[in-house]
Amino acid sequence: MNIENCTAIITGGASGLGEATARLFHQLGARVAIFDRDRQRGEAIVAELGTNVRYQEVDVTDHAAVQAGVDEVLAAWSHIHICCNYAGIAPAVKTIGREGPGDAALFAKVININLIGTFNVSSIVAYAMSRNEPLDEDGSRGVIIQTASVAAYEGQIGQAAYSASKGGVVSMTLTMARDLARNGIRVNAIAPGLIHTPMFDAFPQEVYDSLSKQPLFPVRLGRAEEVAGLARHLVENNYINGAVLRMDAGIRMQPR
Ligand SMILES: NC(=O)c1ccc[n+]([C@@H]2O[C@H](COP(=O)([O-])OP(=O)(O)OC[C@H]3O[C@@H](n4cnc5c(N)ncnc54)[C@H](O)[C@@H]3O)[C@@H](O)[C@H]2O)c1
């Protein structure tokens, strides 16, 4: 599918991987709607990029807010062709703590944002996409991209909630691709390794240096633009469907 003149919703588009994807798709001629909770960053990006980009304060866990956000995009731009789900959080939740069992409320919060939030957005947007006219000779009506993580396969100590949420995203990808095949909608997921986003700037230098040395080759953190480039390919290559692609320079995460 060609990105130019398409409309894309990008959750988590106010920071990191989502921001890089929003910038790339905008540069390629798409209309971009950023759904994020961070109004300040979202509005700053809109002010910088100018036309064909909008920010909407949407919490992906709030089904009614997602529906309202999608309706607003449809009112402004009539159609939605691309949906990228980047909104996510990664707090540590150990199975047991010093004083007792792990934090069940925090576990539920991570699942709610990373997994249920992804379903909320994908299902609401997919319904809108299903009403599009076919866009190309294959009959494409839309493309959905989810964000998993290598933690879906190799969760580190303290990542019980995060790895469970991303494992859910991995498992849901082929199933959704099957559900939506008859509608001409493809669904894929990116499973990034260690990608340099604002999250990493908060780490102490020794942690940053140690993480930077872990990838197999090239031995460095990934760049948000490299993830955006893969998202672009997943939109443009109609023959990738139901896939989860690791983008991690061959890393296999160790327990800590
Ligand atoms: N950076 C990495 O190394 C890495 C690796 C693997 C997976 N990921 C995944 O990629 C995605 C993006 O990560 P990032 O590094 O760009 O993080 P980030 O913190 O820079 O960006 C995440 C964005 O999501 C938004 N967000 C959080 N909760 C939200 C909610 N409930 N509703 C709407 N927006 C919400 C935040 O405001 C933020 O703008 C996440 O799902 C993360 O788990 C990142």
From TrEMBL:
The keyword Lyase does not apply. It comes from the Bacteria. InterPro entries: NAD(P)-bd_dom_sf, Sc_DH/Rdtase_CS, SDR_fam. The keyword Membrane does not apply. PROSITE patterns: ADH_SHORT. Gene3D superfamilies: NAD(P)-binding Rossmann-like Domain. Signal peptide: none annotated. Keywords: Oxidoreductase. Pfam families: adh_short (PF00106). Coiled coil: none annotated. GO terms for molecular function: oxidoreductase activity. Belongs to the short-chain dehydrogenases/reductases (SDR) family. This is 3-hydroxyacyl-CoA dehydrogenase. It comes from Neolewinella marina.
